[in-house]
Amino acid sequence: MLELKHLTQRFGDQLALDDLSFSIEKGELVSLLGPSGCGKTTTIRLIAGFLKPTRGSVWIGGRDVTSLPPELRHAGIVFQSYALFPHLDVFENVAFGLRAAKVPRHLLETRVRRALELVNLKGYDQRAIFELSGGEQQRVAIARAVAVEPQILLLDEPLSNLDASLRERTRKQLRELIDSLGITTLFVTHDQEEAFALSDRIVLLSKGKCQQMGTARELYDHPANDFVARFIGKSNIFELKFKGFGEDCLIFEWPSGRELRLRQSANRQLTTGQSYKILVRPERIEFERKPGYAHLLRAKVVNRRYAGAWSEWELEGEGIVILALRTSQHPSGTPEEVGQVEIYAPPYTLQIL
Amino acid sequence: MILAPRWLSTSATSVRIRSNLILYAIVLVVLLWLVFYPNAFIFIQSFVRAGQWTLSNYREFFSTASELEALWNSLWISLWSVLLSALIGTPLAFLFHRFDFPGRAIFAALASLPVLLPPLVGVISFLFLYGESGIFTRGLQHWLGWKEPLFSLRGAGAILFVHAYTMYVYFYLFVSAGLKRFDFTLIEAARSLGASPVRAFYSVTLRQLTPSLAGASLLTFMTSMASFSAPYIFGGGTRVLALQIYNSKLNGDLEMALVETVILTLASIVVLALLQRYEGVSKYRAAGKGGLQPLTVVTHPAKRFLAGATGVLAVLFLLLPHLTLILISFAKDGTWTMEILPPQYTLENYTRLLSSSQFLEPVINSLQMATLATLANFVFAMLAGYLVVRQRVPGRMLLSSLILLPWALPGTVLALSLASTFNRQEIWQARVVLVGTYWLLPLAYFIRNIPVVVRAVQASFEQFDTSLDEAARSLGGSWFYSMRRVVLPMVLPGALAGSMLAFVAALGEFVTSIVIYTIHNRPISIEILAQLRQFNFGSAAAYGVFLVVLIGAVFVISERYLSETGLAREKLAQ
């Protein structure tokens, strides 16, 4: 439904977007995730037609729309600031696009009412925009965008202006709404949790480049590089030298010269003598050896933080700091009392990046 | 997020480029022909004597003691006016906008009253009050039992007094506005970092208010350099450039008038350029969301009394000229001679003003010309503001400076340049005869008010959230549709506010009018002067009151209208 081909955007000598390509199937909800300044907003503006790409093209519904003005692209947008027209009431805001499309009056009214009902704002027609709460404004913005029945829906951080408790509830409602409309949606956010909760697939963007595209699970379990690993969830990444292949295991070497034997096949090509980044998620770290587990290292307990269901352990060994997450039933005592621990990891929980 | 430069964000269709080009051409032609050309023309003419290129005009200026004196006087009087106005206006703004005590709100509103006095009206009410035979002067003389009046309001001191009284308002309004959007968490931050209150005031408050202070200084200095009415009425032989131009022209020494004009213009522009750097510098703008602090409530009884008393005294002093004007407007013409207060009162001055067509004529003239000029200002400002802010057109800087130029031009300068450019029909020189016609004066009003209206429109366009336009476009609205239904309705309040100011200024205009009015378009201000010359003080004051009331009404209406539409936006922004 939406396809970006080699989109590149330059502002002066700044490269805001670098050869970005991806496509979204009909009815799919894809999140565009990344830290601020990564090119998310640029992408959405390119799709909407507020920017002309330096290179590349935008396709909507199988049509090249790169040279079309915004009003001919049929992309509904929910702006981060909502961009509701303050001089018009709720009804007129929602009716705006329909009036522009010269929808006959009797149809217009029913379509506006339907859109308002969809977002649970029945009876709000005559309200002025400034009388609405943030959440209501957000829903008007959504109603306004979907009232014109756009081919794609672009949501630019629509939840970022809501407070935390409202955000979670709105997120759920938003997903339900989009599902019921069956509309193809691109959702821009910097919040990983939001992207995970909402989307079918995620495009992770950094410095104008697509770092990885996939489902939430793929991004978490099989990050394509250390940026993805660090950005998604918590991670421990160490850089180890590859010593060679042992008997049904891979042998790496710690800076101290100690060996790390991983009983797993390589998920990528390895060259002896070269250093590799190895990722292990904090919740995968074990303190007891079980068959097949790799012995990572021996570490000193530096700090422990109780965080409800979990405890966070800060460990130090081989000159690096390692984070471990354990369920809270683990042995109590101060770090000094616990002293040293051996750290293990089950097979295939270590990723060679 | 990476913000795109605005010119990249607009997708251009050929229709729009063409319509923009036409707009651009119109705006540029108006500015070049009406603003730039007359000034360039008199600049060039100032180097001509008897058809020959020469520097002798300037040589004469710089070798004549009285001319140099005028230049020197203009400069030092203006600097002192800035200083005095700042010393009155700034503390008042702090007192009324930082502290709470009984009567504060009323004082705060009344303190901006001098805005309502058109220059000439302000000056004549001073004349009635503090002049040699003024109410205050005579009253004091009588009370002390002296034969001679204690002082006479004449000369440079008198000019300064009038300037300080009328121009402190700039500081008062600018600083008040600055305090209203001031982020008081900054002071809290400074205090928590160990700064004393004095240090916090000096290093945070004053710095934050720099744009306000610079803007007010600029406005005061320019107004003061251009000031004509005060020296004209109270100068008593004190030469200043703005007056000198008028006198030279009256004496038929056009070459000298041109040189004086050029020098006054240059001096004004230099200061404008110097001070403009500080005005609206973005680094001074608060970056955060801001914390508006409630006013400090004054609780100590003695301090409370002191604050209240200061307020009462200040406001009384500020109100006296208005009250005097109202009082004199009921005085029977020709009866007030040696008494402290006018002995006989009548409603005649007002009834005559409304019933006699001869007396009503100047009022109709002023209303007509101000309306014409303001309509033109409105249309022009919408075009120019749109071009300057929304479109990165080539030559934007040129456009902006041409738009600002009339602001740097004293009224006498503008009048003289128009009078010397449009006095001959030479189409190939782009000169047409307007001198002696009805049209020259409304044209002058239009030119004088270009900056104020364009700036207001510009500010509206700048505040306008471009995502609203984008939202309209993404909902399928064409450029014209978005313009009509979103951009214009949002920009209109600002444009109307600016137009109101222009209308008010045109209504009471005196300085330009006195140079180029004709018998057919005599405006109110000229009529006031004429009545004054015939010692018809009552009639003169009645015209003055009429002007003030009209101006007040315009302010009240626009304030109400604007606060209603502005409210929605403000609430939304929170």
Overall description:
The complex is a heterodimer of chains A (353) and B (574). Chain A has 9 helices and 19 strands. By secondary structure, chain A is an alpha+beta fold. In chain A, the strands form 4 sheets. A 6-stranded mixed beta sheet of chain A has the order 6-7-8-3-9-10, sandwiched between helices. A 5-stranded antiparallel beta sheet of chain A has the order 13-12-11-14-19. A 4-stranded antiparallel beta sheet of chain A has the order 2-1-4-5, covered by helices on one side. In chain A, helix 3 packs across helix 4. Chain A starts with a strand and ends with a strand. Chain B is mostly helical. Chain B contains 25 helices and 4 strands. Chain B has a two-stranded antiparallel ribbon. A two-stranded parallel ribbon of chain B has the order 3-4. Chains A and B meet through helix 1, strand 6 and helix 2 of A and helix 21, helix 22 and helix 25 of B.
Outline of chain B: globular
- Regions of chain B with pLDDT < 50 over 5+ consecutive residues? 1-13, 280-291, 566-574
Number of strands of chain A: 19
Task: Tell me the helix content of chain A.
Answer: 25-40%
- Give the SSE order of chain A as H and E letters: EEEHEEEHHHEHEHEEHHEEEEEEEHEE
Portion in helices of chain B: over 70%
CA gyration radius of chain A, whole angstroms: 25 Å
Estimated radius of gyration of chain B: 25 Å
Poorly predicted runs of 5 or more residues of chain A: none
Mean pLDDT of chain B: 82
**How large is the share of residues in beta strands of chain B?**
under 5%
Shape of chain A: elongated
Quick one: biggest sheet of chain B?
A: 2 strands, antiparallel
Largest interface: A-B, 42 and 34 residues
Order of helices and strands of chain B: HHEEHHEHHHHHHHHHHEHHHHHHHHHHH
Share of β-strand residues of chain A: 35-45%
Strands of chain B, count: 4
Strand order of the largest sheet of chain B: 1-2
DSSP summary: helix tally of chain A: 9
Class from secondary-structure proportions of chain A: alpha+beta
Tell me about the biggest sheet of chain A?
6 strands, mixed
